[in-house]
């Protein structure tokens, strides 16, 4: 397979020098000159002069031609031979860039694997390409943006340079003298999955993530004029001060830089500097008046065009985007960016896609950053290696603070290797305004001999941290418990910025516990926020196992979103907790005056730059009214009021929604405020009157009741519902109420009539039957249950009542409440109030990804219609803040018993207290007050002191 300059340029459309191409076209047209009409020949002569003039005025740009594709959405086939594992021992084809495991070769490895293939698995690549004769005399580099792991490159049988060791770093070889110009060239690459350098394996391969092999990032040629700009390093400050180091390879006389704004207009004057004889490094410096500053809220970018001159003639130009912003660390105070103290709302992110491993694309980068922005995040940490360049480009353009990290997990590179890789990382990434921190490895994977190089190689002198250490003025310790945090983590003297906290696993962590942690972070002046672990489940497509998605058990099931970006419940919790527009809780009482207390939690945005809209909805009729609210003039960190002018009939609606939208038209969050309360909703739904009478017969053990075609059986000894049937058949809802984590001591069961109603109830006894129930059967067939109960202990995981229902007969549900995602005690936020319909699924979070999950706890239930394989039935409540529990997700735990999804007995429950959920690294009760068990202090066994649940049942099948 061959690649030519012309077709690669046409295919990829990269900005390149067009002069040589235009001259080629001109020469081709001249060869047929005598065959053209005179008018056309005249136009060609004119074009010749124009081209000559153009080429003398415009500098050449670096030409970039891809030999591979540009990402997983655009690849090129190369010849390939794998030495071990699947499909080894024979030549075939492979997509480049890619990880060969995903292409059907070699063996899948998670970072802790030990197997016989390790060290033997290599990939041999071959590719043939052409370069034009016109490139003779230029400097031609071959560039690899990332290759796993040891990479040997040969051009026409000659090794291009020393073997490169290290996976995540762009490296290049000058192959000018190895090429055949105007002819075909043979590229041969040998890639070893594991390194011959043990320190590289310790830093990159023995880690808690999937280990892949292959040329996984793009490969391209770059052609530069003999005298050229190698690279630049820019420092653009918020006060307009600008400095750039320009590295050249030339005997030229001068370098200049001109800035351009986003609309293409020149910004400020051109700066220039003469090049001293024998020098290859030039400093350009000056100042600009009132530049638009870069921040995640307003990611303003400028294009800096550097030009190299020789005797007044431009010979090479080099473009680089930049942003004006200043980073300042104030000891024992905080991180100030553009003079504003920042708390980072961050997440850790791997370069990953399930069907292509570490090979991604700009499209994926855009999607990842947009999802982070949609969660109201302002920061991302590169764990545990530098990302693709296009990810940093997107962070620059859409706006995220970035912590860029030199590779390392619990091991680190040796000093010679680490020094080389650190320089490669710095050359590739130094100019991104989004990068505000460097990180030297992770969790003990710090080579301290490299620390000094970060400042020496970075023109901006950005701060550097050691994740998991109290180092350099930053306490970044991972997974500190909430109680530890408020007792000394937040009361030390270093700036507190955990680079990993609330370690997600399955459905635990992330949103669970976040509100407690964030409130502490907001309140403590030494807190600089932190970074959640981590962004997406690393479920990889197993081409050796019929395409299943494999997270290696709990190791890769750590994400807020699934492998293909499926949104878990925590996604919406984070979105609400981290919304920069904070609404204080407000009850929609009759005296509501339309005023909401709000707080501006932005850093650079006035709320008058945002927009607010409202919507009233009648959930029974879907009738609605909409409007907008005036944006309050609130500067960052100010509190004030948002006035919503509602129509006079607003109380005839069920819910008010208020949507806050940022200056870039991105929704921040839609808050919902119920207007109708459960008791009112129940009064409008429950039918009590009927034409027939309620009848009751007794057997030795049962009260058998009939009303309006409904047959019910109750235990005479316990009062528990034993059977439900209507004219269409049995509804298998039974065996309740059972008090959860309390005594099921209903006794002294009697029946009596109250007008046209029948009442079956227990008898209260302070010592032996202090929990009571009362069933009321109405002539309509509706049934009321009134339970008064006491939890067994003052600390309980659960408070509520359970019933039985066969899970295999459940098809779905429709309910009024907050949804559609399930909740935990420490993850309540993120849902909206409304009517939701959910089909049954048995999703196990982090192992299957059909969201929202059906099984679990659902908050603020008003009513629920259960859709079954037989016939539906409906449950309505008068209680506020009642949780509906549906079945039990699979119980999972670990050696520390941290992540434990706890559910009560039975199948369907109505709960007033539910448990929190833990993380991979903390038990639920150690992540804050919301995660603690439910408290019930009153031991006096008096009915007036009991908890109370009131439910209504419609078993008519309608």
TrEMBL record:
Keywords for this protein: Calcium, Glycosidase, Hydrolase
This enzyme's EC code(s): 3.2.1.23
GO molecular function: beta-galactosidase activity; carbohydrate binding
Keyword Phosphoprotein: no
Classification via PROSITE patterns: GLYCOSYL_HYDROL_F2_2
Family annotation (SUPFAM superfamilies): (Trans)glycosidases, beta-Galactosidase/glucuronidase domain, Galactose mutarotase-like, Galactose-binding domain-like
Cofactor(s) needed for function: Ca(2+)
Top EC class for this record: hydrolase
GO CC field: beta-galactosidase complex
Record-linked InterPro entries: B-gal_small/dom_5 (IPR004199), Bact_Beta-galactosidase (IPR050347), Beta-gal/glucu_dom_sf (IPR036156), Gal_mutarotase_sf_dom (IPR011013), Galactose-bd-like_sf (IPR008979), GH (IPR017853), GH-type_carb-bd (IPR014718), Glyco_hydro_2 (IPR006101)
Ranges where the Glycosyl hydrolases family 2 sugar binding domain occurs: 92-225
Domain Beta galactosidase small chain/: 758-871
Positions of the Glycoside hydrolase family 2 immunoglobulin-like beta-sandwich domain: 228-325
Catalytic activities: Hydrolysis of terminal non-reducing beta-D-galactose residues in beta-D-galactosides
GO biological process, one term: lactose catabolic process
Stretches assigned to the Glycoside hydrolase family 2 catalytic domain: 330-546
Family: Belongs to the glycosyl hydrolase 2 family.
Assembly and oligomerization: Monomer.
Protein name, entry field: beta-galactosidase
């Amino acid at each position: 397979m061959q690649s030519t300059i012309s077709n690669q340029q046409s295919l990829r459309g990269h900005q390149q020098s067009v002069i040589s191409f235009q001259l080629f076209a001109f020469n081709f047209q001249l060869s047929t000159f005598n065959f053209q009409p005179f008018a056309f020949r005249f136009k060609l002569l004119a074009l010749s002069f124009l081209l000559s003039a153009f080429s003398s005025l415009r500098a050449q740009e670096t030409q970039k031609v891809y030999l591979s594709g540009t990402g997983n959405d655009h690849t090129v086939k190369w010849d390939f031979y794998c030495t071990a594992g699947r499909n080894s021992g024979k030549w075939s084809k492979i997509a480049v860039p890619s990880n060969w495991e995903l292409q059907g070769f070699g063996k899948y490895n998670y970072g802790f694997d030990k197997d016989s293939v390790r060290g033997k698995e290599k990939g041999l690549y071959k590719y043939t390409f052409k370069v034009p004769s016109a490139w003779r005399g230029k400097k031609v580099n071959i560039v690899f943006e990332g290759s796993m792991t040891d990479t040997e490159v040969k051009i026409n049988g000659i090794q291009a340079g020393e073997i490169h060791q290290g996976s995540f770093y762009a490296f290049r070889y000058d192959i000018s003298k190895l090429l055949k110009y105007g002819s075909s060239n043979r590229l041969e690459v040998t890639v070893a999955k594991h390194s011959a350098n043990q320190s590289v394996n310790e830093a990159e391969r023995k880690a808690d993530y999937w280990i892949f092999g292959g040329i996984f990032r793009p490969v391209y040629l770059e052609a530069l004029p003999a005298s050229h700009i190698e690279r630049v390093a820019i420092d653009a400050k918020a006060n307009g001060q600008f400095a750039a180091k320009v590295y050249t390879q030339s005997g030229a006389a001068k370098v200049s830089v001109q800035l351009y704004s986003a609309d293409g207009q020149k910004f400020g004057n051109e700066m220039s500097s003469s090049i001293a004889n024998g020098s290859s490094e030039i400093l350009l410096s000056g100042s600009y008046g009132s530049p638009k500053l870069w921040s995640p809220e307003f990611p303003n970018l400028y294009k800096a065009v550097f030009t190299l001159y020789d005797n007044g003639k431009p010979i090479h130009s080099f473009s680089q985007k930049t942003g004006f912003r200043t980073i300042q660390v104030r000891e024992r105070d905080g991180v100030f960016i553009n003079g504003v103290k920042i708390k980072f709302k961050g997440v850790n992110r791997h370069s990953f896609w399930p069907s292509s491993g570490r090979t991604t694309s700009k499209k994926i980068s855009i999607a990842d950053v947009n999802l982070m922005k949609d969660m109201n995040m302002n920061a991302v940490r590169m764990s545990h290696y530098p990302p693709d360049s296009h990810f940093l480009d997107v962070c620059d353009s859409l706006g995220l603070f970035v912590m860029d990290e030199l590779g390392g997990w619990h091991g680190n590179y040796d000093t010679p290797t680490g020094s080389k890789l650190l320089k490669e990382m710095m050359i590739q990434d130094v100019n991104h305004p989004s990068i505000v921190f460097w990180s030297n490895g992770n969790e003990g994977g710090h080579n301290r001999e490299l620390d000094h190089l970060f400042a020496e190689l970075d023109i901006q002198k950005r701060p550097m941290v050691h994740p998991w250490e109290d180092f350099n003025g930053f306490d970044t310790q991972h997974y500190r418990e909430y109680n530890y945090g408020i007792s000394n983590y937040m009361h030390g003297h270093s700036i507190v910025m955990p680079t990993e906290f609330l370690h997600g696993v399955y459905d635990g962590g992330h949103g669970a516990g976040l509100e407690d942690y964030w409130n502490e972070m907001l309140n403590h002046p030494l807190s600089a926020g932190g970074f959640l672990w981590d962004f997406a489940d690393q479920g990889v497509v197993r081409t050796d196992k019929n395409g299943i998605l494999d997270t290696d058990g709990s190791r890769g099931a750590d994400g807020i979103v699934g492998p293909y970006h499926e949104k878990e419940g925590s996604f919406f919790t984070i979105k609400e907790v981290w919304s920069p527009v904070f609404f204080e809780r407000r009850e929609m009482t009759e005296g509501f005056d339309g005023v909401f207390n709000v707080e501006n939690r932005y850093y650079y945005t006035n709320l008058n730059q945002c927009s607010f809209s409202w919507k009233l909805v009648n959930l029974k009729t879907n009738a609605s009214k909409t409007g907008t609210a005036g944006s309050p003039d609130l500067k960052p960190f100010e509190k004030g009021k948002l006035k919503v002018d509602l129509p006079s009939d607003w109380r005839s609606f069920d819910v008010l929604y208020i949507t806050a939208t940022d200056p870039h038209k991105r929704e921040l969050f839609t808050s919902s405020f119920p207007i109708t309360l459960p008791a009112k909703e129940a009064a409008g739904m429950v039918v009590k009157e009927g034409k027939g009478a309620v009848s009751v017969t007794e057997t030795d053990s049962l009260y058998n009741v009939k009303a309006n075609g409904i047959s019910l059986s109750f235990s005479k000894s316990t009062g528990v519902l034993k059977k439900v049937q209507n004219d269409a058949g049995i509804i298998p809802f039974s065996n309740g109420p059972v008090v959860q984590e309390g005594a099921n001591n209903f006794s002294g069961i009697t029946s009596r009539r109250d007008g046209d109603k029948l009442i079956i109830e227990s008898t209260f006894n302070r010592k032996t039957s202090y929990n009571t129930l009362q069933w009321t059967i109405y002539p309509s067939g509706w049934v009321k249950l009134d339970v008064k109960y006491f939890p067994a202990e003052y600390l309980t995981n659960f408070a509520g009542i359970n019933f039985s229902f066969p899970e295999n007969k459940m098809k779905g549900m429709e309910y009024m409440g907050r949804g559609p995602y399930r909740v935990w005690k420490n993850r309540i936020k993120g849902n909206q109030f409304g009517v939701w319909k959910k089909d049954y699924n048995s999703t196990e979070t982090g192992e299957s990804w059909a969201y929202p999950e059906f099984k679990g706890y659902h908050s603020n239930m008003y009513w629920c219609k259960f859709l079954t394989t037989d016939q539906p039935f409906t449950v309505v409540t008068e209680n506020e803040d009642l949780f509906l529990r549906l079945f039990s997700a699979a119980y999972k735990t670990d050696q520390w018993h941290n992540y434990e999804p706890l559910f009560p007995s039975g199948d369907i429950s109505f709960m007033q207290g539910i448990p929190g959920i833990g993380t991979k690294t903390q038990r639920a009760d150690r992540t804050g007050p919301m995660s603690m068990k439910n408290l019930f202090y009153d031991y006096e066994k008096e009915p007036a002191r009991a908890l109370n649940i009131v439910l209504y049942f419609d078993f008519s099948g309608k």
